Amino acid sequence: MTQDTWSLGGHTFTSRFILGSGKYSLDLIRAAVEHAGAQIVTLALRRANSETDSILDHIPAGVTLLPNTSGARNAEEAVRIARLARECGCGDFVKIEIMRDSKYLLPDNFETIRATEILAKEGFVVMPYMYPDLNVARDLVNAGAACVMPLGAPIGSNKGLATREFLRILIDEIELPVIVDAGIGRPSQACEAMEMGAAAVMANTAIATAGDVPQMAEAFRHAVEAGRLAYRSGLGRVLEHGAAASSPLTGFLQD
Amino acid sequence: MEQNTQPMEGVTVVEVKNKIDPTVYLPGMEQIDPTVREQVTAARDRYRADAYTARDVRAALDAERRSPEDFAALLSPAAAPFLEEMAQKARAEKRRYFGDNISLFTPIYLANYCENYCIYCGFNCHNHIRRAKLDPAGIEREMEAIAKTGLEEILILTGESRSMSNVEYIGEACRIARNYFKTIGIEVYPMNSSEYAYLHECGVDYVTVFQETYHLERYEQLHLAGHKRIFPYRLETQERALLGGMRGVAFAALLGLDDFRSDAFATGMHAYLLQRKYPHAEISFSCPRLRPIINNDKINPKDVHERQLLQILCAYRLFLPFAGLTVSTRERAGFRDHAAGIAATKLSAGVSTGVGGHGGEEQGDDQFEIADGRSVQEVAAALRERGLQPVMNDYVYV
């Protein structure tokens, strides 16, 4: 097999596991990143907005920073936070997170499209977190997104691929990388997303709240690699209802 | 200074003649849609803590998403034997939403002038205490001293006196605060939404107001004079703050003023209903209590001991797992540290409740005595020892 890489905004990556940096004790972040083998690490700009204990100081050098706009309630706020992230030296990547709901933290697709359009024009590598809606995904592509990041389940819920059928549609129809974000609670779920053909998966809570953080980060790394390898290998046939004769309906045909 | 409601040591109750009607808005008070307020008080009136059984508590604990009825059961006496399980579940919920993070902040008292007569409060206008108000230079000095401790979030407080601490004065303090802090909250007298909009422009995004009690008759007995006596105006404060553009609002009853279970239920319902109406609102709770007299539980079974307080904290956490929850220095260090591992998301640290207590000489007396006098560094170290992560800021003003 040729080397399996993927690209975003002119950067090429070999790891397909994006790690979130929230919810940890800061001294565990470095170990988590290293054990996960992650090359892209997200961080909340609002959390990096600290003089005394900036999360930036705990992310190993060499990884691509992906600041997110959490705290934004509309496109304008997301744009302001993205610009602030760039000024803070976080680079050109930005993950758009716009929530107008403090309970479920579901992304606002409409505002996300607006913000994507503005930020893409300003040269950002825009990675929009979204609810998996095909029409919205197409609008995001047209607005200049670098990928789409549909949620698997509500953020932090660890419920896995609750939106499975819709993720499948996005993976089939969208030419850009589809990165499954939010809700992935177990390595097996990350593996399944990769088997389905996701370009990458992102997780945070599942690792940050594990009993052994570095070990869980490593478990995810293996799961993502296994899922990717399975996808590239072409999955074997899975029978839905028991065994099947080889040609139950057409076996009568002669010559 | 806060002790039992009456009689209170060191507090003389002064007779107030011609008490005003607590249900009638005073001139200048903004009136908004009363729906949420009416729903909250109706829910409190209906609440019967003794109606719930162990079965209800079991169902509430097992529920994946908890309803107001589940919340009601978790606050009831029937839930007391389940406290350990409640704590375990609360801890799991908190980790899911907040991970290891615990936010730190400190209050700053700008002034302790007050025009209200709340018979349980150290600041009330009939108490003979040293009154003071910081001038801009004094505010600057205080804030500089606080910022040196590493804190990046501040809660600005005044006594409830519009004439001594007007909105412009508070706005000026907020503008100064922006030079020293990333996150600014206020806990001052209730205002109109246009005034909240002004303070939001000055850099504030969070508003805390304690309702004290959600029981109108009791409220009337305890708040004898002043603007604060107007019950509906106070109960609508959080909604006016949101209408004024604030990002987050905090709720609290002073537990023990009246039946604490009913007041905790009303507090939770208040937050729940407002968040439903304003889904973007960030909601949080404080959990102040009147300390019971030691060994007094036979005399007053309604006293809020640590067990009851923890039950309330867990019930808030299980009902609204995404809500913030602050435990102040009214509580002792050991309780706060454990609560941070179970249900709380925010602790104050390096606290002085007097006016001018940080930067130099204290000019005005304290509102209440604190039970946890640890410095910011000490609180942060204690949290780290428990595997928790002190967070100085998780916010950006947009």
**Overall radius of gyration of chain A:** 19 Å
Main interface: chain pair and counts: A-B, 34 and 30 residues
Net shape of chain B: globular
Oligomer description: heterodimer
Number of helices of chain A: 9
Shape of chain A: globular
How many discrete structural domains of chain A? 1
With strands numbered from the N-terminus, the spatial order across the biggest sheet of chain A is: 5-4-3-10-9
Give a structural overview.
Chain A has helices at residues 29-36, 45-48, 75-87, 109-121, 134-143, 164-173, 187-196, 205-208, 213-233; strands at residues 6-8, 11-13, 17-20, 40-44, 64-68, 93-96, 125-130, 149-150, 179-181, 200-203. With 255 residues, chain A is of the alpha/beta class. The longest helix of chain A has 21 residues, at 213-233. Chain A starts with 5 loop residues before the first strand and ends in a 22-residue tail after the last helix. The mean pLDDT of chain A is 91. Chain B is an alpha/beta fold and 398 residues long. In chain B, helix 4 (83-98) crosses helix 12 (306-319) and helix 5 packs parallel to helix 6. In chain B, 56% of the residues are buried. The model of chain B is unreliable at 1-10 (pLDDT under 50). The chains are: A alpha/beta (255), B alpha/beta (398). Chains A and B meet through helix 2 and helix 3 of A and helix 4 and strand 11 of B.
Attribute tags:
heterodimer; A: 255 residues; TIM Barrel; three-stranded parallel sheet; globular; B: alpha/beta; eight-stranded parallel barrel; 14 helices; 11 strands; 14% strand; disordered N terminus
